[in-house]
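Re: cytidine-5'-monophosphate structure - here you go.
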Amino acid sequence: MVPTPITVRVPAKVNLHLAVGDPRPDGYHELITVFQAVSMTDEVTVLVADEPGIDVHGEGADSVPTGPSNLAWKAVRLLAERSERDPEEPGVRLSISKGIPVAGGMAGGSADAAAALLALNHLWRLELGRDELCDIAAQLGSDVPFALQGGTALGTGRGERLVPVLARHTFHWVIALDRRGLETPTVFGELDRLREESKPNRVGEVEPLLEALASGDPRQLALLLGNDLQAAAVSLRPGLRRTLRAGVQAGALAGIVSGSGPTCAFLCTDADSAVRVAAELSGAGVCRTVRVAQGPVPGARIVSDDRAD
Ligand code: C5P
């Protein structure tokens, strides 16, 4: 019997704190970061098919590669290898429905890879535990383990070593999407360049932010949001300065570039305020589109599995 397709829903992330260290010999930068999963999601369906491949739907689908460079497809190949299947002929198709901005600094590609791992684990009945899946996820990309885990987490190393963070409260965000994406390696490279040229400010210690998260007070948290990549993203895309200003003028407590950008995330006092800020920001003409989101939300999870067992 052909197994029923499996659909996994997976969230985007914002980095509430992103401290970037010096480049390592392997080209990666040592990070101390706090991720929060937010309620913007992709859905990835895996189904058994003779003709392997990827279909992508939704916003920005045209700019998602459907060949071997797609990170979700790399996830299929890696898991096929691990389970002694032919990675060239894995016998599955992926259907990706995008709700997370493409190349937006919200880890959309990583989210799809995490979703593919979880879905295939079920479709192929591999019975890999969370820890094993996280190890495989880390081989695919620095942000992939967090997309599996979700919630709020402290990430170290490349960002792949995770410890959950206490955040009992819901925070309300307005997310401003830019017209074009930014490539993550370019933004890290720009930060290295800026640091050779001058001494851009670095974010402080992470502990006060962890305390603010535990307290649940968005005003306290707003004062502590920080991202070392922001200077680099703004240097590459100077218009982001205007977007960040406009969000605060619209009533947000604080704004920050999300990860490597160019998406900006604005923290608001509550859900009503977020709706007002979103309306005003979308009228300001500083970004392509505006969304309201909340966090933390859970990581990748199966939303359809019709098998009887
Ligand atoms: O891990 P991932 O493949 O998602 O990273 C994409 C790129 O971002 C890396 O090739 C590297 O240029 C940059 N990066 C980095 N340091 C990190 C994470 C990512 O320099 N900790």
